[in-house]
Specification:
About 50% of the residues lie in helices and about 15% in strands. It is α/β, with parallel strands linked by helices. It has one domain (about 5-235): 3-Layer(aba) Sandwich (Rossmann fold). Helix 1 packs across helix 6 (about 205-220), helix 3 packs parallel to helix 4 (about 105-130) and helix 7 (about 230-240) crosses helix 8 (about 240-260).
């Protein structure tokens, strides 16, 4: 799909990838842009810069996602593209214990990284299906295709987000619904926090570079949008020889942990 003339909703749009998407979509000629974020002031600032609207949104609350979608439809008549972009990273409190994260961290990761995508689909699918067209861009991560050293919560929830995205695409393709999953490695956003680990072995991209990949991926209607092309190779290695891949990731984990300790 081309963004020109479309109505777009973006969660997590106050900064990082979400902000860059809003700016790029505006440059591409989007008809309407609606920003949702917990950071209300940041969301309002981005919305003002692109001539859009903003609403304070906690994506772990279905009512907030519904309210965001309602704002878009009440103002612009429909939603063409819903970008479920908000995400959260939770590090293992004990890197030598994969189960160390407390239940609260798991609940938060599940709510933001998985259920937010489900809530977006619930809010938008009925109208999209009735029109016979609509598109979801779900920001996931290369961690959902591979893994994330140092965060069981992030790796697991991002894998689940891939699973939901696949199901969404398969179940509704015949109804004219498009789905793309954005799966970068390291991006220079607040979530990266200056960390240097396994996620940035192939370089750290700017949010603007990622937004450019998104525009190209949406136009091609690619299911996977991979700003770091090397991820394809890693996926092939993983599925080609799972045992070898696990051994290699374990070695990489040791190198990363030693680097952190050093």
């Amino acid at each position: 799909m081309k963004v020109s003339g479309k109505v777009v909703v973006i969660t997590g749009g106050a900064s990082g990838i979400g902000k860059a998407l809003a700016e790029r979509f505006h440059a591409e000629g989007a008809r309407g842009i609606v920003i949702g974020d917990l950071n209300e002031a940041g969301a309002q600032a981005v919305a003002a810069s692109v001539g859009g609207l903003a609403l304070k949104t906690d994506v772990t609350k279905e009512a907030d996602v519904i309210a965001l979608a309602k704002l878009a439809t009440d103002t612009f008549g429909q939603i063409d593209l819903f970008c479920s972009n908000a995400g959260i990273s939770v590090s293992d409190p004990d890197r030598d214990n994969a189960s160390a994260a407390p239940d609260a961290a798991w609940a938060l990761g599940w709510g933001v990284n998985v259920m937010a995508h489900v809530y977006a689909a619930r809010a938008c699918l009925p109208a999209m299906v009735a029109r016979g067209e609509g598109y979801f861009l779900n920001t996931v991560s290369a961690a959902g295709l591979l893994s994330q050293i140092g965060s069981a919560v992030y790796s697991t929830t991002k894998h689940a987000a891939i699973g939901f995205g696949e199901h969404l695409a398969i179940a509704h393709k015949h109804q004219g619904i498009g789905v793309s999953l954005l799966c970068p490695q390291a991006v220079d956003t607040p979530m990266l926090g200056g960390a240097r680990g396994s996620q940035n072995v192939d370089g750290v991209l700017s949010p603007e570079q990622v937004a450019g990949s998104v525009v190209d991926g949406l136009e091609a209607e690619d299911f996977l949008i991979l700003p770091h092309p090397k991820v394809v190779t890693y996926m092939q290695r993983k599925t080609g020889d799972y045992n070898r891949w696990i051994r290699g990731m374990a070695r990489l984990r040791d190198q990363v942990i030693q680097g952190v300790k050093g």
